[in-house]
Amino acid sequence: MQKPKLVYTTFIRTTPKKLWAAITKPEFARQYWAGLANVSDWKKGSPWQHVTGGRKPEIYITGKVVECIPPKRLVLTWADLDDLADKSRVTFEIEATEDMTCLTVTHGNFKVGSKMAGKVSWGWPRVLSSMKSFLETGKGLNVFAGC
């Protein structure tokens, strides 16, 4: 059985710097990612967490920063706390193209039979659409609509 590799490319009317901030700054990520945020110091080898807000944040996803080249490339390991052995890898590649920015998100390195692969194949299209809407209009989408 072949390991899945999910690749999503979208063009957003924004700058690479603003797109980078949307991914790495908690106050921006919460606007389009159903109130969840990405938290780290974004240094190679540092931990990162995908968390809820509030006084006692709940961690949904965790991992390490593999590579960080602002505002061009971010590579993270990715695992659900319920199954840390089901680890995968996400790469965000950001490139300016005329008056827009191209974002390519590659999620791969799943273990064979990964449950996470199914979760993110449902989630990434929604989150990336919401991010695009947020950056272009100031308002994210309801990523859980129709569930």
Question: Which bin fits the share of residues in helices?
Answer: 25-40%
Question: What is the number of beta strands?
Answer: 7
Please summarize the sheet with the most strands: 7 strands, antiparallel
Q: What is the terminal separation in angstroms?
A: 29 Å
Give the strand order, joined by hyphens, for the main sheet: 1-7-6-5-4-3-2
Share in β-strands: 35-45%
Q: Which series of helices and strands comes N to C?
A: EHHEEEEEEH
**In terms of structural class, how would the helical and strand content be classed?**
alpha+beta
Principal-axes geometry comes out as globular
Mean pLDDT: 94
Unreliable stretches, pLDDT < 50, 5 or more residues? none
Distinct helical segment count: 3
Taking Cα atoms only, what radius of gyration do you get, to the nearest Å? 15 Å
List the helices and strands and how they pair.
Blueprint: E1 6-12, H1 16-24, H2 26-32, E2 37-39, E3 47-51, E4 59-69, E5 73-80, E6 83-97, E7 100-108, H3 115-137
Antiparallel strand pairs: 1-7, 2-3, 3-4, 4-5, 5-6, 6-7
Give an account of the 3D structure.
With 147 residues, the chain is an alpha+beta fold. It is 27% helix and 39% strand. The chain is built from three helices and seven strands; from the N terminus they run βααββββββα. Strands 1-7-6-5-4-3-2 form a seven-stranded antiparallel sheet. α1 (16-24) packs across α2. The longest helix has 23 residues, at 115-137. It is globular. The termini are far apart. The model has no long low-confidence stretch (mean pLDDT 94).
